[in-house]
Amino acid sequence: MRDPFKNPFPSDSARHAIWEMLVPRDIDAFLAADWSMVEHDFAEEGFIGIDGRKEVSPDKWRLAFPTLSAYRQEWLRQAEDFAKQSFAEDARTAIFTTTTLEDIEIEGDMALVRKKFDGGISKPDGTRDVMQWQTLYYCRLHEGRWKISGFTGYLPNPMG
């Protein structure tokens, strides 16, 4: 059985660093609603974020984040909204359990990373906050470390 807290790339330094950036650091920053914990994980110049709107058709996707600043605003809005909610289980454990990041394609100083969410978090009223989407991250080696230069996210999981 997969340990959702264990980095699956113990002997691959590039993939290990990317996983650490996109799983524990991202989750912990989101739960703390603290952008400063991840701000250095982004390459601001040329950043682009596409919102797939959980739609299979690229015709329905939108250039929602033409700048890192636009994405930061939405990230903070979502994190602050999440922080106001109550859950019937530990949110950190639930998010880790829901998250899978095991496929990282690296070519030179560029990487394509596939992060998937499949599960949810139980709420006190017995309902479930479903987390079922995926994101393709575009990372690059920038100033000596891996950084996010863009993404196509909020895609259905599975596609079609």
Structure description:
The protein is an alpha+beta fold and 160 residues long. Helices cover 28% and strands 36% of the residues. It is built from three helices and six strands; from the N terminus they run αββααββββ. It has a six-stranded mixed β-sheet with strand order 2-1-6-5-4-3. A hairpin with a 2-residue loop joins β3 (99-107) and β4 (110-122). The chain is globular and about 50 Å long. The two termini are 27 Å apart.
Mean pLDDT comes to 97
Please outline the major beta sheet.
6 strands, mixed
Which of globular, elongated, flat, extended, rod-shaped describes the shape? globular
Please work out how many helical segments DSSP would assign: 3
Helix/strand order, N-terminal first: HEEHHEEEE
β-strand amount: 35-45%
Contiguous uncertain segments of 5+ residues: none
Number of strands: 6
SSE blueprint:
Elements: H1 13-32, E1 48-51, E2 62-65, H2 68-83, H3 91-98, E3 99-107, E4 110-122, E5 128-142, E6 145-156
Observed structural traits:
3 helices; 160 residues; globular; alpha+beta
Short description:
The protein has 160 residues and is of the alpha+beta class. The chain has 3 helices and 6 strands; from the N terminus they run H-E-E-H-H-E-E-E-E. A 6-stranded mixed β-sheet has the order 2-1-6-5-4-3.
